[in-house]
Specification:
Beta-lactamase, 12 helices, 14% strand, AmpC-like, hydrolase activity, Serine hydrolase domain-containing protein, Beta-lactam-related, Beta-lactam/transpept-like
């Protein structure tokens, strides 16, 4: 439960949302895509390497004043390491633990686009369909394709404009529906011609969420549960728009500010299918492998999914494809917003996976603590010769 804060703080949080948000039918039980290829990791990584990974984690936290973080590294044939450091709740002096629930933020996008690609595999939609076939009123909607939405090349406006901020500031606890979020996009001027640039926005993914609802005939949360979460057994992963339902032990989120530090007020509904999910270290590790290896999709669809390019504006990736990013040969997604950062990545050649969650966001220099920890840990594994496969 989020502690109450003064209205001035609410307004400050709302004012930062534009920057924050710019950065967030069932599969048959016998379908072989419903169960990912398992590659269990037995044993522990070498003690010396564990110490080096711990140092990377703690040094990064110290450098950027991150209150708490959890991380895990899994390398088939070599072993695993998981760790928690710092505080989940500063005021209550509650330590972070590896079992806690964390917001996925924009990692949610990777689930949403996977749902879309499943529908492509089943012949219900085409990536070359336009959004106008499913949602009325999107500027250039008769030219913007689902592929362009998934790859962040649509050019449509984001929803975090003046109208949204006014509504959010007036009632920070309001539960925004997917239709509410998408309504802030309709009729707005385009940012650029479809396909001309690659600008990362939450609105792109939320429109895809509406396509999922239209085609499956289910609310987004039900489609996600039936088509991905249940088949994979991700019991600690949920799509959650009402923060009051977040009853599992979890970390508070923080942003840099004068002491004493106070948790950022939470409203998961403002992210929608672009960022409203929560998960755990263990569940996120499984998702990282499924996402990067394409276990829920046909091979040709996964191959098409990995076609992308560098972002012109957005989070740190070498390239961004269809609801998935690539950094130094690692495929996955990161997330940031309202006090949390996250990174979930898998290296297909070696089968290695890295997951990091941290409870600080919106650093003045735009550092993404979880993504930076991931990069440093990935570099360390490479130096140890563990990524050769």
């Amino acid at each position: 439960m989020v502690r109450p804060v003064v209205s001035v703080r609410r307004a400050a949080v709302a004012a930062s949302l534009v920057a924050v948000l710019a950065l967030v039918a069932c599969v048959p039980a016998d379908d072989e895509r419903a169960t990912p290829t398992e590659s269990p990791v037995d044993g522990d990584l070498p003690v010396v390497l564990q110490g080096e990974l711990q140092s990377v984690m703690e040094d990064t936290m110290t450098s950027f004043d991150v209150p708490g973080a959890v991380a895990g590294v899994w390398v088939p044939g070599e072993g695993a390491w998981t760790s928690a450091a710092g505080l989940a709740d500063i005021a209550a002096d509650v330590p972070a633990t590896t079992e806690m629930s964390w917001p996925l933020r924009s990692i949610t996008k990777s689930f949403t686009v996977t749902l879309l690609l499943q529908l492509v595999d089943e012949g219900d939609v085409s990536l070359d369909d336009t959004i106008a076939q499913y949602v009325d009123g999107v500027t250039d909607g008769d030219r913007i394709t689902l592929r362009e939405l998934a790859g962040m090349t649509s050019g449509n406006a984001d929803y975090t404009g003046e109208a949204f901020l006014e509504d959010y500031t007036a009632d920070p606890d309001r539960i925004f529906t997917l239709d509410d979020l998408n309504a802030f996009v309709l009729g707005q001027p385009a940012q650029f011609e479809p396909g001309a640039e690659r600008i990362y926005t939450n609105a792109n993914t939320n429109l895809i969420g509406k396509v999922v609802e239209a085609v499956t005939g289910m609310p987004f949360a039900e489609a996600l549960d039936e088509r991905i979460l249940q088949p994979l057994g991700l019991d600690d992963t949920r799509y959650m728009v009402d923060v009051a339902e977040w009853t599992a032990p979890h970390a508070e989120g923080y942003v840099p500010e004068e002491e004493p530090r106070e948790p950022v007020p939470q409203n998961f509904s403002i992210f929608g299918p672009a960022g409203s999910m929560v998960s755990t270290l263990a569940d996120a590790a499984e998702w990282a492998e499924v996402l990067a290896d394409g276990a829920l999709l046909e091979p040709e669809t996964q191959e098409e999914r990995l076609v992308g390019g560098p972002l012109d504006a957005g989070p740190p990736y070498d390239l961004y494809a269809l609801g998935i990013g690539e950094t130094g040969g690692w495929w996955g997604h990161n997330g940031e917003g309202l006090g949390y950062t996250s990174a979930v990545f898998h290296e297909p050649t070696s089968g290695a996976t890295i997951v990091v969650f941290a409870n600080e966001s919106n650093l003045p220099d735009h550092t993404h603590p979880a993504d930076l920890m991931f990069r440093r840990m990935a570099k360390l594994l490479g130096e140890q010769g563990m990524l050769e496969g």
